[in-house]
């Protein structure tokens, strides 16, 4: 593919994304963008200093599909560039209970096998129970994953959205609870999108970022 992936700022100098996005070289990130074809005020392109893929990432099953990118310099905060909030593990679990709704943003393809979007789009999706998630696919669903989406598959994340955020609103604050990981087709009937359950990796994230 074009090697385009999403990511989420979690501090002034760290971005969280999907490990499977890191198979090729990753040299920079763009922060505060909306329209890919036009430079906007507040848009920043920053070199990546180092990439840390989770040590348990499994390239076949996409288990532990999470990576951290350290930026060469801090982001200048502004209306379009601010770090997302990480919940504690307990809140993270609560926010991903069945029937809770999250938002996914990205520039991914707007239809299966289609071209990626010029504008940043966002979609609201319900979290699906672990049982329904497992029943919907032949692939392995581990405890480090969760599913979200609709069975009639009207909307979904797609190619190019990988690594991007799944955020849930709790008392007026958006918390980062998932990372777009994989799916079978896009908005395919009977299939859900699969996300990395970020709550399982909070210890790794906080210890890495604080080094």
From TrEMBL:
Q: Name one GO cellular component term.
A: extracellular space
Task: Output the InterPro entries linked to this UniProt entry.
Answer: Peptidase_S1_PA, Peptidase_S1_PA_chymotrypsin, Peptidase_S1A, Serine_Proteases_S1, Trypsin_dom, TRYPSIN_HIS, TRYPSIN_SER
- What reaction does this catalyse? Preferential cleavage: Arg-|-Xaa, Lys-|-Xaa
Keyword field: Disulfide bond, Hydrolase, Protease, Secreted, Serine protease, Signal
Instruction: Name all Peptidase S1 domain ranges.
Output: 1-210
Give the transmembrane ranges: none
Subcellular location(s) per record: Secreted, Extracellular space
Q: Which SMART domains match?
A: Tryp_SPc
Q: Which GO terms describe its molecular function?
A: serine-type endopeptidase activity
Query: What are its E.C. numbers?
Result: 3.4.21.4
What's the protein name? trypsin
């Amino acid at each position: 593919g074009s090697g385009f992936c999403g990511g989420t700022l979690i501090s002034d100098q760290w971005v969280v994304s999907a490990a499977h996005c890191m198979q090729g070289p990753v040299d920079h990130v763009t922060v505060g963008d909306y329209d890919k074809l036009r430079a906007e005020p507040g848009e920043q392109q920053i070199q990546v200093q180092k990439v840390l893929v989770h040590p348990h990432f499994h390239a076949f099953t996409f288990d532990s599909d999470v990576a951290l990118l350290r930026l060469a310099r801090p982001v200048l905060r502004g209306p379009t560039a601010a770090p997302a909030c990480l919940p504690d593990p307990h809140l993270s679990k609560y926010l991903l209970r069945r029937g809770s709704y999250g938002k996914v943003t990205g520039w991914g393809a707007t239809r299966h096998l289609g071209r990626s979007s010029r504008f940043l789009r966002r979609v609201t999706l319900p979290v699906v129970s672990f049982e329904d998630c497992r029943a919907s696919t032949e692939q392995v669903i581990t405890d480090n994953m969760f599913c979200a989406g609709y069975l009639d598959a009207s909307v979904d994340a797609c190619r190019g959205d990988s690594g991007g955020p799944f955020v849930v609103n709790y008392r007026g604050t958006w918390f980062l609870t998932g990372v777009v990981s994989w799916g079978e087709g896009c908005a395919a009937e009977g299939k859900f999108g699969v996300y990395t359950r970020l709550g399982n990796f909070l210890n790794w994230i906080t210890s890495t970022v604080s080094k």
